[in-house]
Amino acid sequence: MSYLAPCPEARPKPSTKVNRTIRPAEAKVVDMIDIEDIGEKAAFCRCWKSKNWPYCDGSHGAHNKECQDNLGPVVVQRKKN
């Protein structure tokens, strides 16, 4: 028996990192988007899996199915007058 079996503190800890792909070398990922560039409506990714970052590409759907999660985008739209 190894030392790791009876000593959970010695076991490697799983990564708690959520973002594993979007600019991982940066200390904090920040994107600025002018409201004038959005048009009427835009969906922004919150799952960190979009290939079209920072916009949502629907990747959360596969994640939700696999992990039984409930992630979705944040949708920004212009106020209707």
Automatic annotation (TrEMBL):
Annotated keywords: 2Fe-2S, Iron, Iron-sulfur, Metal-binding
GO annotation, cellular component aspect: endoplasmic reticulum membrane; mitochondrion
Iron is among the record's keywords: yes
Primary subcellular site in the record, as a coarse category: endoplasmic reticulum
Domain Iron-binding zinc finger CDGSH type per the UniProt entry, residue ranges: 28-66
Subcellular location: Endoplasmic reticulum membrane
GO MF annotations in UniProt: 2 iron, 2 sulfur cluster binding; metal ion binding
Membrane topology: Single-pass membrane protein
Cofactor: [2Fe-2S] cluster
InterPro entries found in the cross-reference section: CISD1/2 (IPR045131), FeS-contain_CDGSH-typ (IPR018967), MitoNEET_CISD (IPR042216)
Coiled coil: none
Entry keyword Iron-sulfur: yes
Family label: Belongs to the CISD protein family. CISD2 subfamily.
Stated name of the protein: Iron-binding zinc finger CDGSH type domain-containing protein
Source organism (scientific name): Culex pipiens pipiens (Northern house mosquito)
